[in-house]
Design goal:
Elements: E1 2-6, E2 18-25, H1 28-36, E3 44-47, E4 53-54, E5 59-66, E6 71-76, E7 79-85, H2 90-99, E8 124-125, E9 128-129, E10 134-141, E11 147-151, E12 172-182, H3 192-200, H4 208-222, E13 230-234, E14 240-242, H5 243-252, E15 258-260, E16 265-268, H6 270-276, E17 283-284, E18 287-289, E19 296-299, H7 305-323, E20 332-333
Parallel strand pairs: 2-5, 3-5, 4-20
Antiparallel strand pairs: 1-2, 6-7, 7-12, 8-9, 10-11, 10-12, 13-19, 14-16, 15-16, 17-18, 18-19
Helix pairs in contact: 3-4
The structure holds flavin-adenine dinucleotide and uridine-diphosphate-2(N-acetylglucosaminyl) butyric acid.
Flavin-adenine dinucleotide is lined by residues 12, 45-53, 66, 86, 111-114, 116-118, 120-121, 123-125, 164, 173-174, 223, 226, 231-233, 332.
Length: 334
Amino acid sequence: MQHHISLKTYNTFGVDASARNFIEINNEQDLNTFFIQGVFQQEFFVLGGGSNVLFTQDFEGTILKINNKGIQHFIEGSNIFITAAAGEVWNDLVWYCIDRNFPGLENMALIPGSVGASPVQNIGAYGAELMDFFYTCRAFDTYTGELKTFTNQECSFTYRDSIFKTKFKGRFIILSVTYKLRIDNKINTSYGAIETELLNRNITSPTIKDIAEVVSFIRVQKLPDPKTIGNAGSFFKNPVVSHDKLVTLKEDFPTIVYYPFINNTFKLAAGWLIEKCGWKGKSVGDVKIWNNQALVITNTGQATGKEIFKVSEQIIDDVNAKFQVILEREVNIL
Ligand code: FAD
Ligand code: EPU
């Protein structure tokens, strides 16, 4: 166990905060050892790639950095089962599949972070969501020291949410995830930006590799690279509203951007709402709302977690005042 470790390089916002205790988890046995030592009876936080967290203060408990590795697969009829250790980089897993021509995950290429975090917020991008390919995960129960396997249904996946963010928040440590792909998964070009970029490249029959490359290209144009500009992707979720609310909003704001969601509800583009409040490209000290995507808050220098959080509060207030819509943060605040 290490003490008083700077977390600056362990979070993609690049904010400085320190952890009182810091442990690396390389295998299941490490967890058993720390369970016996009583580590989980005190405050702790499980950290993957740190691409969806904001440290607003020093962490007085123990950070568990998940580092276990390994990817395996087996094929059964038309199904491909791939099991990856939680500490694997998500994009490496995507390319493991592409290199073997296993279709399914390519639309989620280049999402930062780890395999272990992928079910936590049910990651998604460009027309695909993790829940469509998640089969099971194995997780360590910090209450009992036992291992539990969660099925897809047991995870209660929905948009940017799962049981690991709700009922079991902070309880289970995911050790590995098994994905189920199908040899005959159809290539998904439904997201407008993918179609446009395929046309630009004169690609009429794309392969899964083409899709991953096109998605990666689009992402790089739109989103800041955390290696050079601190950020955690979308800071807020796209808010979901009722049909009645949408009708009212459309009367006042005819160009509002929205998408049909489930059960006659609609997702509003939070980026559009934030932009219309005048925040796009705006800076408060070293906190800047990204020029190309108002949903992304960036740290352009030495911003603190507290400063970033404060700007996020101002954005929530402004969006609420203008649209009577409450934005919910996607990023995990500590
Ligand atoms: P962390 O930030 O380390 O942790 C996130 C949460 O998961 C925390 O609550 C943590 O405790 C928990 N957690 C992590 N590992 C485990 C584990 N093994 N067991 C239990 N709990 C765990 N997300 C999308 O969905 N779609 C996108 O398109 C997208 N684009 C992004 C673009 C950029 C530039 C950035 C910086 C982020 C983006 N994100 C996106 C957010 C981020 O990539 C995902 O949330 C990712 O899954 C976070 O992985 P991580 O390993 O960095 O998790
Ligand atoms: N828009 C604006 N102004 C902006 C940003 C967006 O008007 O500044 C409008 C535009 O009309 C644009 C639309 O919003 O066409 C949608 O924008 P975009 O395609 O960038 O998608 P998003 O809804 O803003 C979501 C996810 C991203 C994911 C992309 C692609 C959430 C919270 N965000 O963003 O995920 O990569 O779709 O699928 O659902 C993340 O979760 O961290 C993340 C980056």
